[in-house]
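Changelog-linked ticket: pyridoxal-5'-phosphate example.
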Amino acid sequence: MTEMSGDDVDWRHGRAPLYVFHGSDAAHEVGRAAFMKYFSENALGGRRAFFGLKRMEDEVVELGLDLFQAPDGAVGNMTTGGSESIFMAVKACRDWARAQTKITEPFNIVAPYSAHAAFNKAADVMDLEVRRLPTGEGYRADVAAMAAAMDDNTIMLVGSAPCFPHGVIDPIQSLSDLALESDTWLHVDACVGGYVAPFFQRIGRNIPDYDFALPGVRSLSADLHKFGFCPKPASNLFYRFEDDRERGLFHFDQWPNGQFSTATLSGTRAGGAVAAAWAVMHHLGEDGYMAIARQLADLTDAYVDGIEAIDGLYLLAKPDLSIINFAAHGMDIFAVAEAMESHGWLPGLTRNPKGMHAMLSMFHAAGRADYLADLAASATAARSGGTSELKAVY
Ligand SMILES: Cc1ncc(COP(=O)(O)O)c(C=O)c1O
């Protein structure tokens, strides 16, 4: 197995800008030990067999509801990832819309161009349309354009906190106002940064409001397995109203085994992921997450300063958290990326506009000087070179 992975990107030393996240060595070990302790248990059986896991899941959800300022009566559950949380939110919303008389099929979802692809995945399965509108200032959602794109068939508005491509938080306050005025479901996709944003706020960074404190936010997804620093697969989906979670549930009893109910697309779920999320959250606590947030904020500033010190490179947007995207004047940024690849760095790429993208976690601390040195050399090579044939892939 080790031999099979011999050509893998050296992600442990920060050479992968996506897919993997790291908070602290201790949190990693705590998560791993808890996962292994519950390696065989199945979270599907939490209600009938694995009561400890059920309690852990409930407590993880409680911590999340508290963190995202959910009002009394709000509920949530764990899922296996951001895509599944989004899928279930869209399903709940669709079923809510079906029960309304003033919203008519075929249904559509109105989202910024920067929203995650998972909304289209969900829409594809459920035969919904997604209307993606160009982003506005600073690559944040253009709320006026979104409002203009809505019609009697619109069931959901989407805002990201932050969006994956640019790491900026959409104007959720304005989206919340729009959702209330139009009686539309607003889903906040806080999958990528949701679990660290509150701690950036607490260490004094300027984080715009994005959670249930805004009354139009009806559901919110936040991934534990990203900047919650918990092992995969683990995410949370939260609903402001208990009735909405009921809409998200799947119930079926026309088969030999009787009543079957799940809040997730998956049936069997790794018990280890539930136990690990519980353990990591309790291990880190508020102080632990704040300490990591402080390190990440400083690390991001250092990367941004280093990148902007290289002639021709500039940040497309000032990052709200630790997700960066930078572009180039006077050279093709994809040619820079191609040169970085030859130095052993997996480049994250975006298009419209072209950029180099990275989600910085503590994996990226030790390699910063090497990264910036290779980036400066790559920019020099690209300045005198041509364009690159690289394509943006996730
Ligand atoms: C903003 C956002 N939403 C949703 C997702 C999907 O999450 P997952 O890959 O866990 O399904 C991601 C993944 O990066 C994301 O960045």
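Closing comment: Example verified and attached. The first strand starts at residue 75 and ends at 79. DSSP finds eleven helices and 13 strands in the chain.
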